[in-house]
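Good morning,

Attaching, inline, the backbone tokens for the sequence recovery test we're adding to the shared suite. The designed sequence is right after.
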């Protein structure tokens, strides 16, 4: 995932659009044109040499001139094409960002600023394109000169041969020489085209060497009922987003018992979401290990690991398709189970009100549903999976307080026999947890029951006071 964190979207679109088109369409056409030009020039020079053998002597200095012109031009043209490819990526990125944030841009009246920025990056790209066109004109002038020397040499040698040559052969030699200028121009142009377009192959080849994540399936396969207890052990666990960055989790060690409800809190950047990513091995360990029911998750395939865990994310993820497909993509459950999950997620009445019911089409990223409805669908999906380990990443952030209360009741009842980790930004959602883990700078600084932590007057107590929870509890007492 670090590849997508560090690579702009426009650069990826550019590789899969312009560069793939170049490899599939442009390079084969350029190679065919190059081959035609090469054979045409070769046959022309052969005809001239047969008519006037002394022309072979003149070919040597002309070939040297041609070689130096081509060498200088191709190197320049290749770099200009590379600059063209590099400066085109920001155009794609800016266009994608503009379309995505169009409503915000209009709301704040920043159309002119985005138009000016678009014109600026297009102008930067056009500098490379214009320079490349100018280099073509530079090449054309010099190749015309070389072609004219070929015609002049062929005509001069024909005159010097006086009457020893047949007039028909002289005519064929000079007429062939007259055509060599344009063909020579195209040969160099196609040679340059091939060399510059090979840049696209280099850019695509670079993506074939991107380091992949761990194998989907390994030789060690867990039992079908794993994890049957839901015990999680962190053993001196360390992780960083990329090798050159600092540790985001530094020496996490803790034991989470079966069916225990754990709240995970901390200030921004404390490592709460990173802890979630580590359980799914989106981030690989830089040290230590995570053991679930006696199995080190680093030894498992990603498919075996991830299908056994369930997460309700902060940003709900839906796909284009029917509601039923989003709830049960692998068709492992009956319609009755799906309706029961919707009822528990407080969505049954909404889905029944839709004309298509479970076949209701969900648009891309669920744009035709509210954010709250999307989160409730993710809750229904989790209820269907009923994994032994559930991770909640502020799963009720986009719903109202009443619905939040109902969802919390559903989670308590339906996941009573599961181990639940709740990444909390609103502390009242984890006040009934068995224990609360307080993270700071990637380390566990407090880990005990909420009541004990409030009495210790530590970091958690300070966060509860800031959220107004401590005052409410004191009033109730």
């Amino acid at each position: 995932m670090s590849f997508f964190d560090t690579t702009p979207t426009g650069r990826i679109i550019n590789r899969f659009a312009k560069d793939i088109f170049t490899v599939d369409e442009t390079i084969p056409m350029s190679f065919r044109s190059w081959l035609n030009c090469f054979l045409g020039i070769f046959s022309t020079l052969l005809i001239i040499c047969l008519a006037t053998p002394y022309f072979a002597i003149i070919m040597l200095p002309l070939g040297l001139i041609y070689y130096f012109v081509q060498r200088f031009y191709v190197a320049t043209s290749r770099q200009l094409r590379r600059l063209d490819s590099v400066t085109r990526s920001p155009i794609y990125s800016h266009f994608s960002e503009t379309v995505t944030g169009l409503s915000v841009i209009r709301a704040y009246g920043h159309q002119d600023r985005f138009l000016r920025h678009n014109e600026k990056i297009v102008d930067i790209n056009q500098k490379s394109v214009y320079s490349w066109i100018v280099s073509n004109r530079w090449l054309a002038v010099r190749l015309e000169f070389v072609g004219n020397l070929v015609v002049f040499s062929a005509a001069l040698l024909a005159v010097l041969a006086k009457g020893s040559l047949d007039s028909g052969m002289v005519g064929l030699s000079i007429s062939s020489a007259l055509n060599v200028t344009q063909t020579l121009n195209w040969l160099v142009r196609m040679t340059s085209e091939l060399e510059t377009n090979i840049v696209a192959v280099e850019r695509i080849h670079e993506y074939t060497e991107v380091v992949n994540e761990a194998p989907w399936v390994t030789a060690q396969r867990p039992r079908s009922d794993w994890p049957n207890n839901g015990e999680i052990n962190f053993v001196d666990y360390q992780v960083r987003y990329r090798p050159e960055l600092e540790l985001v989790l530094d020496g996490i060690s803790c034991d989470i018992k079966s069916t225990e409800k754990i709240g995970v809190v901390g200030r921004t950047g404390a490592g709460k979401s990173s802890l979630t990513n580590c359980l799914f091995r989106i981030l690989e360990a830089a040290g230590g290990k995570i053991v679930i029911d006696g199995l080190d998750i680093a030894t498992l395939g990603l498919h075996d690991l991830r299908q056994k865990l369930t997460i309700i994310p902060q940003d709900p993820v839906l796909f284009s398709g029917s509601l039923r497909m989003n709830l049960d993509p692998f068709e492992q459950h009956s319609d009755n189970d799906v309706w029961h999950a919707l009822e528990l997620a407080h969505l049954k009445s909404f889905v029944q009100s839709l004309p298509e019911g479970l076949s209701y089409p969900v648009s891309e990223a669920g744009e035709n549903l509210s954010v709250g409805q999307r989160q409730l669908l993710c809750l229904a999906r989790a209820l269907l999976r009923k994994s032994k380990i559930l991770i909640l990443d502020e799963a009720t952030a986009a719903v109202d307080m009443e619905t939040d209360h109902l969802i919390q009741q559903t989670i308590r009842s339906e996941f009573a026999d599961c181990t639940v980790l709740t990444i909390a930004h609103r502390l009242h959602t984890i006040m009934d947890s068995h224990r609360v883990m307080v993270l700071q700078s990637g380390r566990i600084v407090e880990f005990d029951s909420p009541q004990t932590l409030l009495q210790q007057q530590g970091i958690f107590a300070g966060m509860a006071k800031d959220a107004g929870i401590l005052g409410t509890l004191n009033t109730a007492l």
